[in-house]
Specification:
The chain has 506 residues and is an alpha/beta fold. The chain has 3 domains: 4-123, ATPase, nucleotide binding domain (Nucleotidyltransferase, domain 5), CATH 3.30.420; 127-303, Exopolyphosphatase. Domain 2 (Nucleotidyltransferase, domain 5); 320-505, Orthogonal Bundle (Hypothetical protein af1432). The chain has helices at 4-11, 59-62, 67-86, 98-102, 106-117, 126-140, 176-182, 187-198, 217-229, 244-255, 259-263, 276-290, 302-310, 313-316, 320-332, 339-346, 355-366, 379-388, 397-410, 418-422, 429-449, 486-498; strands at residues 20-26, 30-36, 45-52, 89-96, 121-122, 146-151, 156-162, 165-172, 211-215, 240-243, 294-297, 460-463, 467-471, 502-505. Strands 8-7-6-9-11-10 form a 6-stranded mixed beta sheet, with helices on both faces.
């Protein structure tokens, strides 16, 4: 087995950003490898594979790991560790969660992994695992208020959140595998078990006006059911929000759906169909017990928290949206025109001091040339869908739609297009207007400069109550001729009209 080189790198825990990082999550139900690219900003996943091993199957009744699951996990670990080596991974972290932590033969399983592969396996406590999930969440939601609940196969781990700061933690044996086994697949019995266990968390009550952040593959599967059943317009789990009453009603519905009905829902792994109703029971009980005002499902959790621990402090503090957008711009842009260059140029068109809006505009500027290589007939559509589904943390669904519409407009789309109208319900009228103006400004910026660097700075806007004047260089000589053209004038007029002003060149 060719594991010697990866083992050397695993033992040498350098804080490098030159190579790749990877996390193997040895969970109660699945074993998963995620490989991250590690440039000079927050890494993004470049490989993600899971194996359904079922380590925790039968744990509730036997107290030991499932023997078949152990052998399946060893096969998957052999593949994942060798793949990591072939992919040039510089640092690999193996983290085992509730099943390994709670099984009487968990330590023996860990020793077997460490001896066979010459690696170190971390087995965090429930509180430590919850805090890892918290790190992954607050990377994208730094001001989170309420609590997170990370549901796995063996346990639910909790962290109370106060404006992004961690408060109380807890862990309960209510993972979907363990709960269904303890209740012998009986829904009413499961409800009683859940309520008895939740009595052990006294701080969970009185979370009114707060948010429950639902983390973990089980609740991601549940979110897909909710998205399907409610005809929600955006099929992206991360950031999917639900009001408390709506979530409770959906939980009641799903808890009583048959396995056959759940299997028919697109995007639900067939092996999760049996456990989804139990996931719904836990979620409903948490909402009712805590009194939270809403639920937000997250695509980020323990693995992302572990990744952050592996990074230098300077990278951990980066904004994931802006970091990801900058990285995408570097990989997809034609020339060297930068997002900040475009952002500074369009800044006079917008009110100053709006931090959240400025952040979104900066991301839009960074992403504004990502569609250049697409076929012209489909450029706007492909750019819209690509931005709508960005694999970055730190985005609400409304913000995803804003960015997608702004880039759609930049590529000559318009707001009456059915693509835009399909997600229009997620936007306010103000945000629609802001996205439209941003897109028109980006379109003009790339027209004026030809997307080449260093040209925009030779022109500038003067904005009055009645006019938007684009000032060109020179006093009637040839210096400004590079910027003059029918397309520039036409798009300046269109931008001015959107802002209720006349647009003209000077």
């Amino acid at each position: 087995m060719n594991v010697s080189s990866i083992s050397r790198r695993v033992r040498h825990k350098t804080k490098t950003t030159d190579g790749r990082l990877a996390v193997i999550d040895i969970g109660s139900n699945t074993v998963r490898l995620v490989v991250y690219d590690a440039p000079n900003r927050l890494p993004i996943p470049i490989f993600n594979e899971k194996a359904e091993c079922g380590l925790g199957r039968g744990l509730e009744t036997t107290g030991v790991l499932c023997p078949e699951g152990v052998e399946s996990a060893m096969v998957s670990l052999t593949r994942f560790i060798n793949l990591s080596d072939s992919m040039g991974v510089e640092e690999l972290a193996l983290v085992a969660t509730a099943a390994v932590r709670d099984a009487t033969d968990g330590p023996e399983f860990v020793r077997r992994i460490e001896q066979q592969f010459d690696v170190q396996v971390d087995v965090p406590t429930g509180a430590e695992e919850a805090k890892l999930s918290g790190l992954g969440l607050v990377m994208g939601t730094p001001s989170a208020n309420g609590f997170l609940a990370d549901l796995g196969g063996g346990s639910v781990d909790f962290v109370e959140l106060d404006n992004g700061a961690f408060r109380h933690t807890a862990t309960l044996p209510l993972g979907h595998l363990r709960l269904s086994e303890a209740a012998e697949d009986d829904i009413e019995r499961a409800e009683k078990i859940i309520n008895v266990e939740l009595d052990n968390i006294d701080w969970l009550v009185d979370q009114r006006r707060m948010t429950l952040y639902a983390i973990g593959g089980s609740w991601r599967a549940l979110a897909r059911v909710f998205i399907d059943q409610t005809s929600y317009p955006l099929h992206v789990v991360d950031g999917f929000p639900m009001a408390n009453i709506d979530a409770i009603q959906m939980c009641d519905l799903v808890a009583r759906l048959g396995v056959k009905s759940i299997k028919s829902i697109s995007g639900i792994p067939k092996n999760r169909a049996k456990s989804v109703p139990f996931c719904a029971l836990v979620l409903r009980a948490l909402i009712e017990r805590s009194g939270v005002s809403n639920v937000v499902f997250s695509g980020y959790g323990m693995r992302e928290g572990q990744l952050l621990k592996m990074l230098p402090a300077a990278l951990r503090g980066q904004d994931p949206l802006l970091s990801g957008s900058a990285g995408m711009a570097e990989r997809t842009g034609r020339f060297a025109i930068t997002g900040p260059e475009v952002f500074d140029w369009i800044a006079p068109l917008f009110p100053p001091g709006r931090d959240a809006e400025s952040r979104l505009r900066m991301a839009a500027c960074m992403l504004s040339d990502l569609g250049w290589s697409e076929h012209p007939d489909y450029r706007a559509e492909h750019a819209f869908l690509r931005v709508l589904r960005l694999p970055f943390a730190g985005l609400t669904h409304a913000e995803r739609v804003f960015l997608a519409i702004a880039i759609f407009i930049r590529y000559n789309g318009d707001t009456v297009n059915p693509l835009v109208q399909s997600v229009r319900s997620l936007m306010t009228d103000y945000d629609m207007g802001h996205a439209n103006v941003t897109g028109l400004a980006l379109r003009l910026a790339h027209t004026v400069s030809g997307s080449a660097p260093g040209l925009l700075e030779h022109t500038s806007f003067e904005v009055s109550d009645t006019e938007i004047v684009l000032q060109l260089p020179g006093d009637g000589n040839d210096e400004g001729d590079i910027f003059r053209g029918e397309a520039v004038e036409r798009r300046l007029r269109t931008l001015g009209k959107a802002l209720g002003r006349e647009g003209r060149l000077n």
